Amino acid sequence: MTDARLADLADRLPHLRLLTEPADLEHYGRDWTRRWTPKPLAVALPGEIAEVQAIVRWANEHGVAVVPSGGRTGLSGGAVAANGELVLSLERMNRVLDFDAVDRTLTVQSGMTLHAVHEAAKERGLIYPVDFAARGSCSIGGNIATNAGGIRVIRYGNTREWIAGLTVVAGNGELLQLNRGLIKNSSGYDLRHLMIGSEGTLGIVVEATLRLTDPPPPSQVMLLALPSMDALMEVFALFRARLPLQAFEFLTDVALKHVLAHGAQRAIDGDHPYYVVTEFDADEAAQDAAFAAFEHGMEQGWISDGVIAQSEAQAAALWRLREGITESLAPHRPYKNDISLRISALPAFLHEIQTLLGDAYPHFDVVWFGHIGDGNLHINVLRPADVSDADFIAQCEHVTKLLAETLQRHGGSISAEHGIGLVKRAYLGSTRSAGEIALMRGVRQVFDPKGLLNPGKLFD
Ligand code: MLT
Ligand code: ZN
After folding, report:
1. Is 337 a member of any domain?
2. 216 C-alpha to center of ligand 2: Å?
3. Do 112 and 199 belong together in one domain?
4. Which of 1, 89, 105, 239 has the fewest CB within 10 Å, making it most exposed?
């Protein structure tokens, strides 16, 4: 170990797994953005809380920045280590610690994947309902760091709603037990909620107590083809009023083109500009209501076509049309926007933004999809082969500035569920006031006086 700081860490923690091979530095130093060149000092893979605390204390003594790391499926650069930081990967801390059938809580280490959390809940006859396509790779700690949302927010809300307690190593190495699983706790500031969505800047989440709930009743999945964005909003209002929705997701024909090219199966013939994948509780009354809503939508001209899954395999195939989009776009290194608005503000915003993006990106493929039922749109711009990375990002940044201004006027947010990280840092001021950002800086200073936890992320 040639670096004296690392030699000291290895001396203090002789059993700590520490990686310094170039391939490991590259693997652990980046996330799904692939925009920055990874350059961490080393990667530490602690196996227990005491090691995490010792690493943070060591980092304070040597002034080494620490990047907390989960599954690195993030899309905002929140887990990127490109400046000689120590990556602190929680991936070895991935066990279930406790299940309480009375409280209906599952306590887990933060390196568990979301999929493993789902399985652990299922084995106990319950569900952890937050869900999205990266479930197999993302970690519950990363979900907490970004207050992840996903495809069932319309029914269950974001990650925040399901966190009953957190164990956190603060910036000085101290261990904090936040909320301890209580349902009611009116005893001052709820630091648990401050941690959720803090993108690893206030502390390192090492354990989480998750609320579980009953499995939903059997459901049905439907794919709809629609003629316009206005029709999409009408159909959403119609379905939400009449059906117990679990999900209501949309994609455009451009998104469909990419996901079909990536191996998904076409389910509706013809060309339609918009599609919806929706899932709802399927008791007899809901099924009748679904058919009635569908017919009404057809009569109004809001729905052009539709299919309803007849089996679990068909339901999975319909979901693949929506869930496969991110993977199908990844080879194009998309520039990602993840915006949110109040649903009531969407129609006016969409009218304005469609013209703006049409003018701004006449030569780029622009792919729209997302959680329209939550007011959350993903607008992905694809880099043409003949445009350099630098030119492409510069053009996209210019448009993001206009997008951020438009969002600000409509009261929206520049990040709905991916986080601010490095990618959206320049636009934080369009979503948060100067006063709020000043307070956030103050909070960060209190939790991490030396500024060593995920520096540069969220804001400088
Ligand atoms: C999704 O909704 O599929 C995720 O947020 C990932 C993405 O935006 O690519
Ligand atoms: Zn999403």
Report:
1. yes
2. 21
3. yes
4. 1
- Based on the domain organization, do 206 and 104 belong to the same domain? yes
Same domain, yes or no, for 101 and 185? yes
Ligand 1 atom nearest to 322, measured from its CA: 3
105 plus 190 within the same structural domain = yes
Q: Based on the structure, what is the number of domains in the chain?
A: 4
Which residue is closest in CA terms to ligand 1's atom 8? 378
Q: Is residue 258 scored above 90 in pLDDT?
A: yes
Q: Which of 130, 338, 379 to mutate to test the pocket of ligand 1 (most atoms within 8 A of CB)?
A: 338
How much distance in Å is there from the Cα of 181 to the middle of ligand 1? 30
Q: What pLDDT, in 10s, does the model give residues 115-131?
A: 999 999 999 999 999 99
Same-domain check for residues 87 and 100: no
CA of 326 relative to ligand 2 center, distance in Å: 9
Site residues for ligand 1, CB cut-off 6 Å: 75, 132-133, 326, 338, 370, 378
Q: Which CATH number characterizes residue 304's domain?
A: 3.30.70.2190
Confidence of residue 359 (pLDDT cuts 50, 70, 90): confident
Which of ligand 1's atoms lies nearest the C-alpha of 370?
A: 2
| CATH number of domain containing 408 | 3.30.70.2740
Looking at every residue in the chain, the average pLDDT score rounds to: 96
Given its phi and psi angles, is residue 268 left (phi above 0), alpha (psi -120 to 50 degrees) or beta? beta
Domain that holds residue 277: 219-326
Do 168 and 124 lie in one domain? The reply is yes
- The model's pLDDT over 274-329, given as tens digits with 9 standing for 90+, comes to 999 999 999 888 889 999 999 999 999 999 999 999 999 999 999 999 999 999 99
**What CA–CA distance (Å, rounded) separates 322 from 220?**
15
